[in-house]
Every structure is written in structure tokens, then in C-alpha cells.
## 1
Amino acid sequence: MSLKEYRHKRKFNYTSEPRGLGVSVSHRKPRFVVHEHHASHLHWDLRLEMPERIKGGRLVLKSWAVPKGVPTKEGVKHLAVNVEDHPVEYIDFKGIIPAGQYGAGKVLIWDKGTFKLLERKSKAIKVELFGKKLKGVYVLFNFRGKNWFLFKTQE
Ligand code: MN
């Protein structure tokens, strides 16, 4: 997924969300953020900084909307719906998306940190998160279409 879909959904004259100028792959630790998004339905968005494709491409935020939030207990599986890639600048975004705009509502940063990529396949991603709230190994497992399971595991 390129950033086309992200840009297509937004009117940058109206929302303060970043357009995303693109950042090349660097060697610092990859980062993650969990946004708490008070849209029409409250949900959390997990975003992992990684190349847009398994074999490279520019850095983006691979993103999943998690209706129940990221589980903090081991073995609790939550649905995570893959949504469009977001530009890496979005990692610092917080604020209000104006009424009438895509995703309208308040966006807060619920947690943020770095992660270690342990595995990345088309249908399975394993990361170790080093956040303030989220710490430990998490698995994202694609089971149908855009639907993934997100759970914390021992390793
Ligand atoms: Mn959202």
C-alpha cells in the first residue's frame, strides 16, 4: 500500500494531519505509536514504522485500527484491521481532525516507543515493543482480508 490512499482520503487544507514528504530508510531503531482515536467509534491505531514492502521501499507507518485497543495481557487476542499506510511524520500527530473530514475527532498518543522487528512475513509480523505502556513481544496474524489478530506472547 502506498501513501496514495492516505492522501486521497484527506483534505490538507482542512486537517492538520501531515501530508508526508517521505523519509528514507535510516538505521535508527524503528518506532511505533498507538493513537487513541475518538472518531465516530472510539478505537486505537497501532502504527509500526517499517518499509512499505517486505523487500524495501520507503519508510511508512504500517497501520491497524484496533477497536478494543492493544491487549496488555498475554494470550488475549484482539481484532486489528489493516488500514492505509500513514507517513512517518504521523507518529507525532495529535490533535483534532475537523468535523466532516476523514476520521474526524480527537487523536491522542496513547503510547509510543521503539520496537525490534523479530519477523515479517506477508501474513505474520512479530515485534518486541519498548513503549511506556506496551512492553514485550506482540504478534500480528492476518487471518482474512484486512483482518488480523493482535496478541501478546511469551516469545
Ligand atoms: Mn483511526
## 2
Amino acid sequence: MKNEKILIVDDEPFILDICRRLLSKRYTVHVARNGLDAIALLQQQSFDLVLSDIKMPGLGGLELIHEIKDTQPEIACITMTGFSSLDTAIKAIRSGVNEFVVKPFEPNDLIEAVERVLEKERLRKENIRLRSLLPLFEFNKSLMSTVDISRLLEQVLSQAANEVPSDYAGLCLLDAQGNIAVSQALASTDIDQKKFEAYAPQLIRIMQTKHTQLVLDNPFNQGPTEALPVSSTETLLQQLGMFSVIITPLSGKAGLLGVMITARKTTNFEQSETSFLSVLVGQVTIAYENARLFEDLQQAYDELKTLDHAKNEFINIAAHELRTPLAILTGYAGILSEDISDETQQGYLSILNRNAMRLRGLIEDLLNMRYINTGELELSVSEVDLQQLVTQLLQDVSVLATEKQIRIQTKITEPLPHIYTDQQKVELTLTNLLANAIKFTPKQGEIWIDGRALHDGVEIAIRDTGIGISQSQVNKIFDSFYQVEASLNRRYEGIGLGLSISKGIIEYCGGTISVESQEGQGSRFIITLPFTVPQSTVG
Ligand code: ADP
């Protein structure tokens, strides 16, 4: 059985009975004995089709249809007539009748006429639905790129006005507390917008529990709903001076984001129009959520920028302020070491010196990090003999390696070419990588340094048999202050800046730095450097 509802109107009980029997197998059927009863029924419930006799005492069939077409134009109408005169046919068509059947009719004639009209109606509705989706699709594209909320409101209201003409269309957007944050409306000149504004908070409260579109129209099809009983619907429509009102909620992920109120003074909205508003508001909801997200992001970004600036300033001031007392400390330590002959005291002094050096290294790291972040790092470029540099470095770290009985081997078969770069900074990077390799490799482990010329530069790699890095961490180790081990139970010294500085320096020099590693299997850090530092980064 199809779910369309048909109202049959005839003063002749037998005809009424025959029609009911024929059609109720396929549709939901109601009957009325005269025009006035039919109008009363039409005011209580909605129908898809009215099948009416023409000649009836009181309100005639054509007048009834006239009335229906005035108030509920979407209802299809078929008339039954005893005489098929041209005059009656013309009158019927003028009143908006979709088809008429001539009495006496064969059962099939009636069934086919009804089905034909309903099928046309189905197609018409589908057509409207599809047509209304097209502008929505186009509109969606511009809507989704709108991050300015008042512009969004304007766009939506004018799109709604284009597709669903109404006497009032208003859109309220709520803030996180559920209060109206912004609202805009388009209304005919004779509409008192203040009334709508006064009702808006009440409608928003209803929508906060209801979440789905509320259609208040004539007859009060909604029936007594929990959201708004018939009596209140009637009062609301009367107070607003409207024939029908649709309240469409913007239901976002986090609850109600707003409501759209659309109203007409003299007619109902068609089903296709209410669906259109539903889809439109659905799109607006996503766009509004995007815009709110964008605003939050922008705010968070601005806050971060301020924080970042403060951090850079702090590092700058702290590092410079630490340098002077450190210089005084190391200066007097130097003087003392010349005056002291006692071995124990000399031992104390060398501890003092070693830690002063560590502190100096930390200050240099902080400053380098700041210069890299602010783009103020300055390169001092000269011809660098990489082969010699690597040999020198191996000597420098040999003490550390020997302490842990780690063997370092070079696997450079061809002498490395000379390149033009910042020697000190490349040296700092290679020292960081080598120091890490020693630090994260257990006693008696091994480290290899290999290097080769590339067609556009050089590649140097440092491989160790150390603790390795898991796949989930490997991409993070170049971030500032990132350390695989949580700082509270760390077994290794350091502040997590070495690799991010190395990355910054190498990239400044026009090269790359990467790592291949497996947890428990050791790591291989690879840097590449071009023959010449790019002009853009030379200060
Ligand atoms: P730091 O060594 O001061 O902690 P780095 O920036 O040099 O900071 O390194 C960041 C982290 O990357 C280290 O804390 C460590 O967890 C990991 N890491 C660096 N080099 C190695 C390596 N050769 N083997 C294993 N883990 C390493």
C-alpha cells in the first residue's frame, strides 16, 4: 500500500462507498459527505489528493477545489462529474483541477486516474527537490570558504530568500553559553520584526530539546507535540500574525548552535521548501562550526605567537645575562688554577671548569635556537676541508668514546671534497651527532662514520649500535626540547635541543638531515650539504 492520503467527497453514499472500496486497497482513504465537512477535515489533517463530486448541495465541488487551491495548493484534485460538457471541463481546469472522471466510470478508470495524478505529483515533488539541490550545491562551495560570520548570515538569508520566498526569515547564532551571539533577518516592510525577536529565546529553548525542524502551519498538522501543543502553536501564529512558521535548528556536534525562523503570512510552506531549508541549515551548521573553529584557531595562534615572542625574548635576555657572570667565573677559575699547586684543589677546579663549559654550551644552544627560529642565524662561509674536519672531530670525541670503550671507525673510501659552508656550525652539528651516538650507545658498542661525494654536494652519515629510536618517536626527535625518555627518569644528560639546532643549521646551509633507526638496533643519522651555501641564507 502506498502511503498517500486521499479525501473523497460526494453527497451520494453509494458512490462514496464504491470509491472508498476501490481506493482503500492502495491508499489511506477518508470520506466527507459534503464540501463543508471536507474543509473541516482538511483543516485537521493533511491530504495528498481530493477526489470530489462537482454537483453537491451547499458548497459545490468546484468551489471546494478553489478553496483548497488557495490555501493548500500542493494538494492534487480530481473531480467526478455526471456530464462531460466542455463548459464544466473548462471551469474545472480553471479551478486548478488536475484531472476529472466522468460518471458512470469503470473501476479501472478511477484507479488509473488517481494513480496518474499522484504519480505526476510524485514526479513534480521529486523535480522540485532535485532542482532545489542544485543551487544548494553551488552555494555550498562559497559557504564553506566563508569564515566571516556576519557575511555567512547574509549569504544564507539571501539564498533562503531566493529559493523559499517568505515574509520573514531570521537567523540567530548562539555563543558557547547558548545565548544569542549574532542575529540577522530579512522581512517584508509590514512585518514587525520585534515580535520575532521577542519570541526567539522561547523558540531556541524548544529547539534545545527538540533538535529537529518544527513546522507550525495550517491546519496544525503537527498535532499536539511535546515541543509545542496545538493551543500554543495557534497562539504563536496569531501573535506573530503569521499563517505558518518553520523553525529549523542548527544542530552542531556540541549541541544547538542557532535557529533559523522562516514565516509566511498567508500560505503554508510546501514540503519541498521545508526540506530545502533543512538541507540549507544543515550546510550552514557545518559552515558555522568551521568559522567558529577558524576563529578559535586564529585566537590560539595569536596567543601562541605572543607566547613565542615572549619566549624568544626571555631566552635572549637570559642567555646574554648568563654570559657575563659565566665569563667572570671562568676567568677567576683560570687565575686560581695558575696559583694552586694542590692536586685535590686542582681536581675541584677542573670540575668547576667542566661544568662552566657545559653551561656555556647550553647558553650557546639557546641562542642558536633563538636565531634559527627568528631567522637571524648568520653564516660565516669559507672553504671547508671536510675530510680534515672529520679527522679533527674524531680526535676531539676520542676521550668520551674511550671512557665507554666504544670503537669509532671511519669508512670514507674517497677523500671528501672541499665545500663552501660555515665551518663552525657544521662542526657543531657533527659534534652533536657524534656526542649523541656515544651517549646513546652502551659500553663496548661501535660507531661508524662514512661519507661520500654526491653529484651536487656531500653526504656524511654517523651510525651507532645504540639503543635506537622507535618508529613512533623517530619523527619527533628533531623538535625543540623533545627527548624520547621522559625527563623525570632520564638516564642521559641533555635538554633536547641538539638535534633541532643541528637540523636548523644544516637547513640554513642548504642541506638535509635525516635518521634511520630501529629500537634496540642502533641509529644512522645522515646529513647532506651542498658544495656552496645558497646565496639567500648568507648574511
Ligand atoms: P638531547 O641529546 O640533549 O636529549 P637531542 O636533540 O640531541 O637532545 O636529541 C633528542 C633525543 O633524540 C634524545 O633525547 C634521544 O632520545 C634521541 N636521540 C638522539 N640521538 C640518538 C641516538 N644516536 N640514538 C638514540 N636516540 C637518540
